[in-house]
Amino acid sequence: MSCHKEGFKSLAVLLLSFLLTFAAGAVGALASVSAQQTYALIKQPTWAPPAWIFGPVWTSLYVLMALAAWLVWRQRERMRIDIALIVYAVHLLIQALWSWLFFGIGRADLAMLDILILGTIIAWLTFVFWRVDRLAGIFFTPYLLWVTFATILNASLWYLNGGKLPM
Hints:
Layout: H1 3-31, H2 35-41, H3 54-73, H4 82-104, H5 108-132, H6 134-160
Helix pairs in contact: 1-3, 1-4, 3-6, 4-5, 5-6
């Protein structure tokens, strides 16, 4: 393939990576329309971050995630990356589901199960992405750290609110 065609294909895949990643974020955001109000109504640990911080953090993480997936895709000639990218796509669905479980239907218990599965997949993806492309692994690391923190927060909110969230 010519350099021009390869460059165009790479740009198209980069845009697709951003589109898919932010689409998953948008699906989750639909369930989170009243998240700030719900978040303000529930009992929280003293270390819980303010509601306004979640938007900027997730936006930054989505950028890093999309770039990481693209960096992995760029290594397709050097190694098999299809399983990693399929798992990446599936993980986006699981990630979007969390908001629907927690804020959409107020099921902190199911959201906890979801985020435990999600965290496990993210840990695996971080490891695999690191092995494929170091920068991709580095880009995924803040996501792994944030979801680890979010898992602890989810568990705390579930416990402090007796498993019930206001709807």
